[in-house]
Design a protein that fits this description.
The protein is an alpha/beta fold. It has six helices and twelve strands. The protein has a single domain, classed as 3-Layer(aba) Sandwich (Rossmann fold), CATH 3.40.50.880. A nine-stranded mixed beta sheet has the order 2-1-3-4-12-11-10-7-8, with helices on both faces.
Length: 196
């Protein structure tokens, strides 16, 4: 069973529909204890970094980190991926999980922000999440802040600068784009996650 984290700010309906389409057994939950019984966890997100404040209040942050530490596959989408980093300049008084190094930053003034629409991802070989995704496939983005390039970046995207489109370390995965809105490419990525 795949648990989809509901913390009051995620793009839950689209994510749920995508997994329903794939025939996955899913449960949308705001209960930290449910994460312990799930096989995999998806942490979607849309909105301001400050909305992650509820994760600490509800105990969900602790439950997510514990589940990840046990080797359970965890996928962060958009704001969910940004939470996997140390934090974001969008709200400096809230810490991220610190699983990946660095802070999320705003796009340079040379490009329009937010970054909304289709853009290509340059995927690295060996990514389990992006297995079978053609090089420079287009995916759908909508975000104002971006995660830095790190050793664990498995796909980079160019928009005013290069940033992490996807990251991967062991059982922990993150995508800045929205696979649930990225057509067949996005569905193939979610299918890969189901098969981990």
């Amino acid at each position: 069973m795949i648990a989809i984290v509901d913390y009051g700010a995620g793009n839950l309906n689209s994510v749920k529909k995508a997994f329903d389409h794939l025939g996955a057994e899913i449960l949308v939950t705001d209960q930290p204890q449910t994460l312990a019984t799930a096989d995999k966890i998806v942490f979607p997100g849309v909105g301001h970094f400050s909305s992650l404040r509820t994760l600490d209040r509800s105990g969900m942050a602790k439950a997510l980190l514990h589940a990840a530490s046990t080797g359970k596959p965890l996928l962060g989408i958009c704001l969910g991926m940004q939470w996997l980093f140390e934090g974001s300049e969008e709200c400096n008084d809230i810490s991220g999980a610190g699983i990946f190094p660095g802070k999320c930053r705003q796009f340079p003034s040379s490009v329009k922000s937010p970054h909304v629409g289709w853009n290509s991802v340059a995927a690295k070989e060996g990514s389990r999440l992006l297995r079978g995704v053609a090089q420079n496939s287009f995916v759908y983005y909508t975000h104002s802040f971006h995660a830095p390039l790190v050793t664990e970046t498995t796909a980079a995207t160019e928009y005013g600068l290069q940033f992490s489109g996807a990251v991967e370390r062991g059982n922990i995965f993150g995508v800045q784009f929205h696979p649930e809105k990225s057509g067949d490419v996005g569905l193939s990525i979610l299918k890969n996650f189901c098969e981990l």
